[in-house]
Design brief:
The protein is mostly helical. It has 23 helices and three strands. Among the domains are: about 270 residues, no CATH class; about 100 residues, no CATH class. Helix 4 packs parallel to helix 7. It is globular and about 75 Å long.
Length: about 575
């Protein structure tokens, strides 16, 4: 009887952890999709060039990133083309990027699940760790922008699984299996290339000394594959991954940082001014505030996204010290600093305790090291002394995810009160940082409604919000004719009178006629009539899709096959 009770408790706990994992993964995806406006974000102009290339609006990107990540985003956009129209392009693109990133992220966390299982961690502690990772600010931001670090996060665990197998049973055959996916990882972005190479050298250096001839042969194969795809990609980019187009930045970044940037600390500003721009000349200051926050105010604290609007007043906002300084307004920043210090201290502690996992625990330091080389002019100048934003945490966020996961699985080997407090603290910091709780506002609800209706998980989201019903998700009249044009700009929240702007002569919706001619429709009634007559709303983006160049396409297909093969042999019991 006692054994059966214990068994039922274990089953209930495992079921709860499964639900927690899936719920937090879906919830954070939906949260990012609803509150971010990616096409309005920083660096959109640079990264959207790739989307333009894949929808045939340009022949060159004039940048230096790998093509495959952006092709995946473009492919999702092309597949979901029917969801868009001439009015909701902003939400359409935003939703597609989040959807593509979510798919990529899911393959990444599956890879980390398999990797951690291979290190004999229990399923329960892995799932709790992955649930908590969903609430880590740098990972949430990584999932919610058009930048390729999410792709590095996805591929990284699969590469480690393959390399671990190779070094256990060294043969050229075992290396051939993973050389293409490894090459894809190494050609995502120049800084990622450097970070991953240093990580792999630290982890496998002692193995490389043995069987040197085989390793050298494998290196030559890798080099050949690297050169092959790099050459093809540079033909599209006009730049290699080790170059950077500074022409568009008007010389702002054609500088080298002073040595003091590395060690300078504005200690009192951590209390009085833990915000931008007081730490622009301090690597330590930027890292402490930006790791679990948004120091540069370009992701969460940015008026082009919805997070900063309708924040409810909290009693903590008015807390002050004896001198009258109101420190309550900086509680989120203080929390970020504290969590960052704990994060690096725990990473150092566990790296000494379990030296075989040292590169995993300290991987963010590898990221910082590579970016530090960059600010000192290697391989090219890339430093703005007025901002210091070359050290943005987002550039090595995938390594923060790696380190966090290994720290979390260590902490959550057992579930106790301290662990629960850690989980709750990180959960609270996450939501407070995103501007929650929020006051109820019809204007905000109406803007979110438009984003939910175009979401790839509209039916799921509508179960948990009042502003949309599941029936709205497939209601073409709701999607196209009743569209609120004001929702295209988050900054419209600044004016409470910007409640609803519908189709009119000044803001027509475009339909395609029988001969694919464009027809301007100027009213709700006319729009409904066109839908009833089976006319198709015109979507100006991703009507066609350019395929990847042949070598890139081959590498992508091989990488997909490799991931499914590794997943199959590790998840399906023989």
């Amino acid at each position: 009887m006692i054994k059966s009770i214990k068994y039922s408790k274990l089953n209930f706990l495992d079921l709860f952890i499964y639900i927690l994992f899936f719920a937090t993964t879906i919830f954070t995806f939906s949260l990012g999709e609803l509150f971010f406006y990616i096409p309005k974000g920083v660096d959109w102009v640079t990264h959207s060039k790739y989307l333009g290339y894949f929808e045939y609006t340009s022949e060159r990107t004039h940048t230096s990133y790998g093509l495959i990540y952006y092709f995946i985003v473009s492919l999702v956009s092309f597949i979901r083309n029917e969801a868009g129209n001439s009015l909701n392009t902003i939400h359409f693109i935003n939703s597609n990027i989040h959807t593509a990133n979510f798919i990529i992220y899911c393959f990444g966390i599956l890879g980390f699940y398999i990797l951690l299982k291979s290190f004999s961690y229990k399923k329960r502690s892995i799932l709790i760790s992955l649930s908590l990772l969903n609430f880590a600010m740098p990972i949430f931001i990584m999932r919610s922008i058009l930048k390729p670090e999410i792709f590095a996060f996805c591929l990284f665990p699969w590469i480690i699984i393959g390399l671990d197998k190779y070094f256990k049973n060294i043969s050229i055959k075992n290396f051939i299996y993973l050389v293409i996916p490894l090459t894809v990882l190494l050609t995502i972005k120049g800084s990622i290339t450097g970070m991953v190479i240093i990580f792999l050298l630290i982890r496998y250096f002692k193995h490389i000394r043995n069987n040197f001839k085989i390793h050298f042969s494998c290196f030559l194969i890798l080099l050949f594959c690297f050169v092959l795809i790099s050459y093809e990609t540079s033909e599209v980019n006009s730049y290699s991954i080790l170059e950077h187009n500074l022409s568009e930045e008007a010389g702002k970044y054609d500088n080298v940082a002073p040595l003091s940037f590395v060690y300078k600390i504005h200690k009192w500003d951590f209390y009085y001014n833990p915000e931008y721009p007081y730490h622009n000349d301090s690597l330590i200051g930027i890292t402490l505030i930006d790791t679990f926050g948004d120091y540069f105010n370009i992701f969460i604290n940015y008026d082009e996204h919805l997070f900063i609007y309708d924040i409810a007043e909290k009693t903590s906002d008015t807390l002050s010290d004896n001198s009258g300084f109101i420190y309550g307004k900086f509680l989120i920043n203080y929390g970020s600093i504290i969590f960052t210090i704990l994060f690096y201290l725990l990473g150092l502690f566990f790296s000494f305790k379990e030296k075989r996992f040292l590169p995993f625990y300290l991987s963010p330091l590898i990221g910082i090291f590579v970016l530090t080389l960059n600010i000192f002019g290697f391989p090219f100048n890339h430093f703005d002394p007025n901002k210091g934003d070359t050290m943005k945490v987002n550039y090595y966020s995938f390594f923060i995810g790696v380190s966090l996961l290994f720290i979390f699985v260590k902490i959550f080997k057992k579930i106790n009160l301290i662990n629960i407090l850690i989980f709750c603290s990180m959960f609270c910091l996450f939501f407070y940082s995103l501007g929650f709780p929020k006051i109820e506002n019809i204007q905000m609800d109406d803007y979110l409604k438009e984003k939910i209706k175009i979401s790839s998980i509209c039916e799921i989201t509508s179960l948990f919000v009042d502003v949309t019903k599941a029936s709205d998700c497939n209601n073409e009249i709701q999607k196209h004719c009743d569209y609120n044009i004001y929702s295209n700009e988050a900054q419209n929240m600044r004016n409470p009178n910007n409640l609803k702007l519908q189709i009119s002569k000044n803001n027509p919706i475009i339909f395609l006629g029988e001969k694919n001619e464009k027809i301007l429709v100027n009213s709700y009634e006319e729009c409904v009539d066109f839908l009833k007559q089976k006319y198709t709303p015109y979507n100006p983006v991703f009507n066609k899709l350019r395929l990847l160049p042949p070598i890139n396409m081959f590498y992508l297909l091989v990488t997909i096959v490799y991931i499914f093969y590794i997943a199959k042999i590790n998840l399906i019991k023989k």
